[in-house]
Design a protein that fits this description.
By secondary structure, the protein is mainly alpha-helical. The chain has a domain of about 30 residues. The chain contains 2 helices and no strands.
């Protein structure tokens, strides 16, 4: 691309045009999606806590530590 063809004003116009085409989520969609992300994160945290505790218990039994 030739540097002489770069036009910042044209770039800004194109960006505004693209942003106007975006379909933005509604407030309800955003809240539902956020809730699902938080719930899945909490579920993953609990899962990994349980798995970690089981591995810790197994290591203590195998190596007789603690």
């Amino acid at each position: 691309m030739d540097l002489a063809k770069l036009d910042p004003a044209q770039f800004v116009r194109e960006v505004r045009q693209e942003v106007s085409r975006v379909t933005w989520p509604s407030r309800k969609e955003t809240l539902v999606t956020t809730g699902l992300v938080l719930a899945m994160s909490a579920l993953a945290a609990v899962f990994f806590l349980v798995v970690d505790q089981l591995i810790q218990l197994a290591m203590r039994l195998v190596f007789g530590i603690g």
